[in-house]
Write a structure and sequence with these properties.
Elements (H helix, E strand, L loop, with lengths): L7 E3 L4 H11 L3 E4 L5 H6 L7 E4 L9 E4 L3 E5 L4 H6 L1 H6 L1 H8 L4 H6 L2 H5 L12 H6 L28 H7 L3 E6 L2 E6 L19 E7 L5 E9 L9 E10 L2 E10 L6 E2 L1 H5 L8 H11 L13 H19 L8 E3 L2
Parallel strand pairs: 1-3, 2-3, 9-13
Antiparallel strand pairs: 4-5, 5-8, 6-7, 6-8, 9-10, 10-11, 11-12
Length: 337
């Protein structure tokens, strides 16, 4: 049995108390909300904090407020189940509701939080293993080693972004509110990430994600599709979030964001630009899907082969856009037998 190491647990009651606690803990501290990813990583000694600052007792970090006309605020500690089943989120921001509902399994969605999934650790076949397994191969750059075992000649880590909700929120134009020792700031969710498998978050270590802010939903349609081997539990092999603002049947704005194909959610800006000013016809969808496959740069560090994951990107983008057009009502995920 793999056991948790010893640690001190702090349970602040306010955001200010949590900010002070994580600042005082310094490099020995980590934040925890649902803990569905952090605790298993601690058991495998991928994370080794001496102090955990728990956020579950802070009531204002939970709940959904606002309106589709003015925008919606979701507390970072709102559970994924609550996000997935919220009628307003499902109606006005369906990509987010779908993505939250496809994270892991029902039991873990009842514990896992939206903020936790947005900030979830990157993944790699060489990293997400037990300590003894990793020791046997000499460890990797992401923890305890000095080379990337996926690309040994590279100077950086290529672990893959593993969040379902981050691509969906990116496609919706969401922002996050951060609280830290210097006060609060709001940044677009696209600015929260950086293309490095180790330092994948641009926020400071002493900052807390307190809210996710969704813009007004008027005129926007959105969807999220997920590829994974099993029908539940697995992290994405590919995630495709697509959103479009239509006037009549003409696209005025569009975003396509790919998950699990790089160390960050990858926006397919050229593909989305091909849709603007056009109707979502079969021809327009095919052209955008062809262009969207370009930003997908999967490596051989997650499930299935990377050539297959590259090819299926085009298929999933086409399905997502067809769904926006009302041409495809198939399932939101595909499980590989």
């Amino acid at each position: 049995m793999i056991r948790l190491p010893s640690f001190a647990y702090l349970a602040p009651r306010t955001v200010d108390e949590a900010v002070r606690a994580i600042a005082d803990a310094g490099p020995d501290g980590m934040l925890v909300a649902g803990g569905t990813d952090l605790y298993p990583n601690m058991k495998r000694r991928q994370f080794e904090p001496k102090v955990l600052v728990g956020l579950r007792a802070i009531g204002p970090l939970r709940g959904v407020a606002g309106s589709p006309r003015d925008g919606v605020r979701i507390g970072a500690c709102t559970t994924l189940t609550a996000v997935a089943t919220h009628p307003g989120v499902g109606r006005d921001y369906p990509a987010l509701a779908t993505a939250a509902g496809l994270v892991s399994s029902p039991q873990l969605r009842n514990m896992g939080t939206l903020g936790g999934n947005v900030c979830v650790d990157t993944r790699c076949n060489y990293y997400n293993q037990s300590y003894e397994w990793r020791k046997a191969i000499g460890f990797c750059m992401k923890k305890d080693g000095d080379i990337c075992l996926v690309a040994p000649g590279s100077s950086r880590c290529w672990a893959v972004s593993s969040s379902d909700t981050a691509p969906a929120l990116w496609s919706l134009g969401a922002s996050v509110r951060l609280a830290g020792p210097s006060g609060e700031r709001t940044v677009p969710i696209a600015a929260l990430f950086q293309d490095d498998g180790i330092q994948y978050l641009a926020k400071r270590a002493d900052e807390i994600v307190t809210e996710i802010l969704l813009p007004p939903a008027g005129g926007w349609r959105s969807t999220y599709l997920k590829l994974r081997r099993r029908g539940s539990f697995d992290f994405p092999i590919l995630g495709v979030a697509a959103a479009a603002r239509l006037e009549g049947d003409v696209v005025r704005e569009a975003r396509i964001v790919l998950g699990a194909v790089a160390s960050v959610p990858r926006e397919a800006t050229k593909a989305a630009a091909l849709l603007v000013g056009h109707r979502l016809t079969t021809e327009a969808i095919e052209a955008a899907a062809d262009a969207a496959a370009g930003p997908a740069k999967p490596l051989d560090n997650t499930d299935l082969t990377h050539p297959y994951r590259k090819k299926v990107t085009r298929v999933y983008v086409a399905r997502a856009l067809a769904r926006l057009a009302g041409l495809d009502q198939g399932p939101a995920q595909q499980a590989i037998a």
